[in-house]
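Exercise 7. Given the encoded structure of a 133-residue chain, write a plausible sequence.
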């Protein structure tokens, strides 16, 4: 695990394709609900600043997230789940998200390994589907 708790993957597609695939995977999962989408590039542009393409999608599954917050309410700082899609200065598109096992340690979650492993697997599958060429 990265000491920062961030998992990043390189996409084999352009920014828009990666983001749309990510969104589609989440929308087509009956257990997940999109809470919000933010376009950081557009927000920067609105105040005259430049930023490479950068969007974040927030989504959740209350059946998995609620028990974690019942265990440690500070987990609400990191829920709902978020996946960041961005293009770096070299034009490489990446997806990044918080490692649930890092969040376990950050929030002192106990006795929830099954849920945390399920979330970790889901995030891995979702992001793999988004970056696949």
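Solution.
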């Amino acid at each position: 695990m990265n000491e920062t708790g961030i998992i990043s993957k390189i996409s084999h597609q352009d920014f828009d394709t990666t983001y749309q695939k990510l969104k589609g995977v989440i929308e087509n999962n009956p257990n997940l609900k999109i809470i919000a989408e933010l376009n950081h590039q557009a927000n920067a542009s609105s105040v005259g600043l430049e930023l490479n393409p950068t969007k974040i999608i927030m989504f959740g599954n209350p059946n998995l997230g609620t028990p974690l917050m019942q265990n440690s309410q500070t987990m609400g700082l990191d829920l709902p789940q978020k996946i960041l899609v961005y293009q770096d200065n070299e034009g490489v598109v990446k997806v990044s998200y918080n490692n649930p096992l890092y969040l376990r340690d950050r929030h002192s979650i106990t006795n929830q390994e099954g849920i945390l492993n399920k979330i970790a697997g889901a995030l891995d599958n979702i992001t793999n589907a988004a970056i696949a060429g």
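Remark. The longest strand covers residues 33-39. Students should compare their own answers with the one above.
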